[in-house]
Amino acid sequence: MKTSNSTFEEIGKILSSAGKVLIFPHVNADGDAIGSSAALCRVLRKMGKDAFILIEDDIAGNLKFLDDGLTTFDMDALDADVSVCVDCGETGRFPKRADKFMEAPVTVCIDHHGTSKGFCTYNHIDPGAAATAQLIFRLIKAMGVEIDKQIGEAIFAGILTDTGSFRYSNTQKETHLIAAELYDSGIDAATVAQEIFETMRMERLRIESRAIETMATLHGGKAVLAYVTQKMLEETGASMDETEGVVGQLRSIAGVELAVFMKEYGPEEIKVSLRSKKYVDVAEMSSHFGGGGHERAAGFTLRCSMSEAFDRVKEYVMNMAEMK
């Protein structure tokens, strides 16, 4: 394992010499994870490789347009020469596939989370990149593969989602330059945006409304906490992936600096999403609870009841010095 970043030229050579490659996005994959994985998978297939994206949970409905036979749940789909984890830096982010990932003789990590340490044979971790999709773009360039419309749209989807449509503070000059170059590949940016942001079921609106009704405010409205339970999903007919936009809505409230959204996946499995606007380092907060992420977007999992999780997180937020 290398302790310093591998170059994209090094990683490109490894992928070019492989015959079979499995790609591993994190669980509850967002647009950056799916977009980055789809772009890389298409590039590898374009090169004549056997390549699949191995997943363990369903892709969110608004991201399924990126998948066209690229993903599989089948652990036996390939005995990979190379395993690549995308948009995550530890096997705990894809627990049911961890053993399969480590079976490959060569492992690669491509990620932009500052909490990732680099555990693979080859690692390229760049916390300065606005999205992992930016890193995949650089990798493809280093490999000398032409970016076609489908590859370009997958990269654009990753950038679009992780920058909040270029609104978040992680957006850089390079982000816009990459997006501009993707237009040369023939992408339909408007259609990609419509698929991601304007393709929702009525059930999603219902669960978002129910979740926002649970909102509690702290520090005079500078921090908000909300949650969703399995019972709420059953009552509205929604799926958990349809709650992904709630934490962003909470952060968008005037005067809010910190938004916390808690999701009950099981009796003792609570996933917590954190977002901040300007000064709260949510990666630090997430790390306290065993998670990871960025300064403005992070998350972690608690193995307890929703009631206990809510109380633990609320107490932590109440004692945060930067919120007082």
General description of the model:
This protein is 38% helix and 19% strand. The strands form two sheets. Strands 3-2-1-4-5-6 form a six-stranded parallel sheet. A six-stranded mixed sheet has the order 7-8-9-10-12-11, sandwiched between helices. The mean pLDDT is 95.
Summarize this, please?
This protein is of the alpha/beta class.
Major beta-sheet overview? 6 strands, parallel
> How many strand elements?
12
- Proportion in β-strands: 15-25%
Q: What does the radius of gyration come to?
A: 19 Å
Helix content: 25-40%
Major sheet strand order: 3-2-1-4-5-6
Secondary structure: elements and pairs:
Blueprint: H1 8-17, E1 20-25, H2 31-46, E2 50-54, E3 71-72, E4 82-86, H3 98-103, E5 106-111, E6 122-125, H4 132-143, H5 149-162, H6 173-183, H7 189-197, H8 202-213, E7 216-218, E8 223-228, H9 230-236, H10 246-251, E9 258-266, E10 269-276, H11 282-288, E11 292-293, E12 297-302, H12 306-318
Parallel strand pairs: 1-2, 1-4, 2-3, 4-5, 5-6, 8-9
Antiparallel strand pairs: 7-8, 9-10, 10-12, 11-12
Helix pairs in contact: 1-4, 2-4, 2-5, 4-5, 5-6, 5-7
